[in-house]
């Protein structure tokens, strides 16, 4: 195995005091970012993941919630951190209706095009989370291509940006899906749990470290600085 540095790719969704299971409180997010700054960490983007510099980490947000702009962005700017937000392009300025089958479903507002532009103007990065958040393992190849390509085309048409980053909805993919992703994107993140280790993971199946609403700062430390995620979930 490579002895290169292990890079935690943090996975967040909503940053708010909502009771939604995917929402991390604003205070906890602040404390986590403050912790990373005090430990000498700096953020990089996915395309910089094979740098040899120590103490690098990546911040990602799935779904593109409005509260990420309102609550997380000021904190990111305070600590001079950058982050990538993955958007569901058909549902900008709407809500997370793809989660409505969940027993604990709570409505969350997504960013509008104007807010996406504000995210970009503040030095942040965007990625695709498909056009309508469908499970890519459960649809045919034509639907897969549509879900994967339409979201990329949207950002090219609306923002003149060639989006290079992708996040699999629900963390679900198959070999057919990965082949399509390789045609449209350069990096893709999963929900497989581990810090990134060069030569162990490829750029289209990058693992992440999920940050959960009940995680204490001690557990956050374990996920970032120790093999906790690498070993505990190595067979996932």
Can you tell me the CATH class? Answer: Alpha Beta
Overall mean pLDDT score?
A: 94
The strand count comes to 10
If you compute it from the alpha carbons, what radius of gyration comes out, rounded to the nearest whole angstrom?
17 Å
Description:
It comes from Pelagibacter ubique (strain HTCC1062). It is found in: Secreted. This is Chitooligosaccharide deacetylase. The protein is of the alpha/beta class and 236 residues long. The chain has a single domain (9-232), classed as Glycoside hydrolase/deacetylase (TIM Barrel, Alpha-Beta Barrel). It is built from seven helices and ten strands. It has helices spanning 26-38, 66-78, 113-121, 141-159, 175-184, 217-225, 228-232, and strands at 9-12, 14-15, 23-24, 42-43, 56-63, 84-87, 125-128, 165-167, 187-193, 206-210. Strands 1, 4, 5, 6, 7, 8, 9 and 10 form an eight-stranded parallel beta sheet that branches. Strands 2-3 form a two-stranded parallel ribbon. Strand 8 (165-167), helix 5 (175-184) and strand 9 form a beta-alpha-beta unit. Helix 4 packs parallel to helix 5 (175-184). It starts with 8 loop residues before the first strand and ends with a helix. The model has no long low-confidence stretch (mean pLDDT 94).
């Amino acid at each position: 195995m490579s002895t290169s540095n292990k890079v935690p790719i943090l996975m967040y969704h909503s940053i708010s005091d909502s009771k939604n299971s995917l929402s991390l409180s604003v205070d906890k997010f602040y404390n986590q970012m403050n912790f990373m700054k005090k430990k000498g960490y700096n953020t990089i983007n996915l395309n910089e993941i094979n740098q040899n510099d120590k103490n690098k980490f990546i911040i990602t947000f799935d779904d593109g919630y409005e509260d990420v702009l309102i609550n997380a962005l000021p904190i990111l700017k305070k600590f001079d951190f950058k982050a990538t937000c993955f958007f569901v392009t058909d549902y900008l300025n709407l809500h997370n209706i793809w989660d409505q089958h969940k027993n604990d479903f709570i409505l969350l507002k997504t960013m509008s095009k104007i807010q996406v532009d504000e995210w970009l103007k503040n030095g942040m990065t965007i990625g695709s989370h498909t056009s309508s958040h469908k499970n890519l393992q459960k649809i045919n190849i034509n639907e897969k291509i549509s879900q994967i390509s339409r979201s990329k085309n949207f950002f090219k048409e609306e923002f003149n940006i060639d989006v290079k980053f992708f996040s699999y909805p629900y963390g679900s993919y198959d070999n057919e899906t990965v082949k399509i992703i390789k045609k449209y994107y350069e990096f893709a993140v999963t929900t497989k749990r581990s810090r990134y280790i060069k030569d162990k993971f490829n750029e289209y199946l990058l693992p992440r470290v999920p940050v959960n609403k009940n995680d204490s700062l001690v557990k956050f430390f374990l996920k970032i600085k120790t093999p906790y995620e690498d070993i505990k979930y190595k067979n996932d």
